[in-house]
Write a structure and sequence with these properties.
By secondary structure, the chain is an alpha/beta fold. The protein folds into 2 domains: 161 residues, 3-Layer(aba) Sandwich (Rossmann fold), CATH 3.40.50; 130 residues, no CATH class. It is built from 11 helices and 13 strands. The strands form 4 sheets. It has a 5-stranded parallel sheet with strand order 2-1-3-4-7, sandwiched between helices. Strand 8 and strand 9 form a beta hairpin.
């Protein structure tokens, strides 16, 4: 059983969209519709989870920053849905062009700092690979009912089910060589469209330690001291610097650190519960490689 939430302030769109989704989705799915961003935000903040959220961007409110219960447009819903992990996928059906430049407000700063981004970039940032966007026709050019018929041919049941098969915060760690002396590890978001991101050597060593800890106890942390030892062998007091460096690298390659690892200042770090591990190497080939390396090393030492 799945669930879909609609955020659409225009009843001429909200009612047909709800009917469309009820016809497309399996009968055991629930489809709920709300007319304001504030109502949707209240539902999300309560902890309610959905498989898909379908929303408009302009919900007759101001942009981006929630200052009170009356202020929550589609951009705010997108950001909070991702931060709260309240849905696995988005369907944006809006009158705004996909590549239109929009002003956004950074909510964590005291001043209302505005930056410009396209709707496409904003969706990719928060739900990369787990969103679909359609542009509504201009008023009076195509009847809503006719546009809904087109949508029904595009949003067939399999497409919607596949869209929320995984979530944008579900990562897979792929291990090609688990040897801590020469690790070969990378991560990718779970899903067909997401690319493989190789990890640096020290980051790979830390991930191997976290994998070992998880296999012992899913809540077990790699200690602060051990993290410092991996990154700064001669200075075991640099845990914060090690974690900051790792997080900066993840941010640079497009991985949200909090989706991959959980960090507690006093305890250390561990893998996020949703992370999957996949071993991509052949054990016989790996052992043969280790034996060859050892023979080569012994030969060099014998010559010297």
């Amino acid at each position: 059983m799945g669930s879909l939430l609609i955020a659409e302030d225009d009843p001429n769109w909200r009612i047909p969209l709800r009917q469309m989704y009820k016809e497309i989705l399996p009968k055991d799915w629930s489809v709920k519709a709300e007319e304001s961003g504030a109502e949707v935000l209240e539902i999300l903040e309560s902890g309610k989870k959905f498989d898909i959220i379908s929303l408009d961007i302009n919900l007759h409110t101001t942009c981006g920053l929630v200052t009170d219960s009356l202020t929550a447009d589609g951009r705010t819903i997108i950001r909070r849905a991702r931060e709260l992990k309240a849905c696995k996928a988005l369907i944006v059906i809006t009158g705004l062009p996909y590549d239109e430049n929009l002003d956004f407000i950074i909510p964590d700063l005291k001043d209302r700092v505005i930056f410009v981004s396209t709707l496409n970039d904003y969706l990719e940032e928060w739900f990369g690979g787990h969103q679909i966007s359609y542009t509504k026709p201009p008023d009076d050019t195509i009847p809503v009912e006719e546009f809904i018929k087109v949508l029904k041919t595009l949003l067939h049941q399999k497409k919607l089910i596949d869209l929320c098969e995984s979530a944008p915060w579900h990562y897979v760690i792929e291990i090609y060589n688990p040897d801590p002396r020469n690790p070969d590890i990378g991560v990718r978001r779970k899903g067909k469209r997401d690319k493989f991101i190789p990890m640096r050597e020290l980051d790979s060593k830390l991930l191997l330690e976290m994998i070992d800890a998880k296999e012992t106890d899913i809540k077990k942390f790699v200690s602060r001291e051990r993290v410092s030892e991996i990154y700064f062998p001669s200075n075991p007091e640099k845990y914060s610097q090690a974690m900051s460096d790792f997080k900066r690298y993840l941010d640079r390659v497009g991985v949200k650190a909090e989706d991959l690892i959980l960090i507690e200042y006093k305890k250390g770090c561990r893998l996020a519960p949703s992370v999957e591990i996949k071993y991509k190497f052949d054990e016989d080939e790996l052992e043969a490689s280790k034996d060859s390396s050892k023979i080569a090393k012994d030969s060099i030492e014998g010559v010297s």
